[in-house]
Amino acid sequence: MKTCASKFVDYMHEYLDGDISREHEQSLKQHLQTCPDCQQHMHELSDTVAFIKSAAHITAPPSFEEQVISRLPKRKNSVGIKRWFRQHPLLMAAALFCLFMSATVLGSFPNDNQFSVTKKPNIVVEGQTVTVPAGEVVKGDIVVKNGDIIIEGEVDGNVTVINGNYMASTAVVTGQVEEIDEMFEWLWFKIKDGFNNLMAVFSNK
Amino acid sequence: MDALVNKRIKQVLKGDQNAYADIVNLYQHKLYQVCFRMLGNKQEAEDIAQEAFIRAYINLHSYDQNRKFSTWLYRIGTNLCIDRIRKKKPDYYLDAEVAGTEGLDMYSQIAADEQSPEAAVEQMELQDRIQYEISRLPDKYRSVIVLKYIEELSLQEISEILDMPLGTVKTRIHRGREALRKQLNNL
Ligand SMILES: [Zn+2]
Predict the structure, then answer these.
(1) Does the UniProt entry include the keyword Nucleotide-binding (chain B) (predicted)?
(2) Are A48 and B174 an interchain contact pair (Cβ–Cβ within 8 Å)?
């Protein structure tokens, strides 16, 4: 098989792409008339194009659109609301004030000195002192009102002491420890609590 | 069509998720077809085409509305396909065979309605073979050949979709055609 100048193969591709110059086209045509090898090559290329162009049209399955829509991420409201609060501190203060004044907060104000503690199976209560014994792990938050808490074991959650003392030496508390003494702090605690709940409601949307 | 698409895009950007359904509806077949031809497998094509629409939705704010939406969407889709092809390269030949079977199933469904069984068989073999040959092309030729001959896009559009100079697209199409020609001759 004789080898022709590779420019003729280039011209064939230019021709197939539809952007061949008149000059190149002329030159290619003349060459093809005299060269069976290049004629064969041109023929094969045309057949290749015809072959690939005969591919059947393919359509997406019927449920395609529906599935895409169902997979779209839901709009994140919580981000928007948090940003809104950050951009409108005055309105946030007003919102907190409403919460502050609401019946649930005021109604729950500890107006008596009664001792109370969150019920947990593995804590020991003696008088007004709550003890988490060594070796015990308490799951969840503990709130002690009008009493003290001694932690010798572990608490997997937050510890809040209202009008009392938190006593611990080697304690392990995974959450936050907070001591609250004043009425204002109690309200603040309730507000934060309420605010976090509010946030939780929005972020769960 | 572009005016309608741009209107829908504005609605989506304003938060109307339903407007996106119209966009999916308009382009689903084109995009699915590219993915199927690139990957040679129905399930993967569906997966990747859906993923492309979801990525387009998430990044819609970065789409330049002065350009063609289809170009942008094809770009996301072909990039995902190329990534997928590169990840599964070791069982390349195995996939090519699976691809043939897929084409056969699909085509036999289309063909059954409108053609005689003999014609259907003939066509089936051809369709089977086309997908097989596409699957055998190296991925850098496969994408240009699919965009040019299956989607019938202009070289300029292909160069935008694949983000490469027009000259590179031409070279790849030339080499892709030569590769296909050799494949068909070595029967
Ligand atoms: Zn010659």
Answers:
(1) no
(2) no
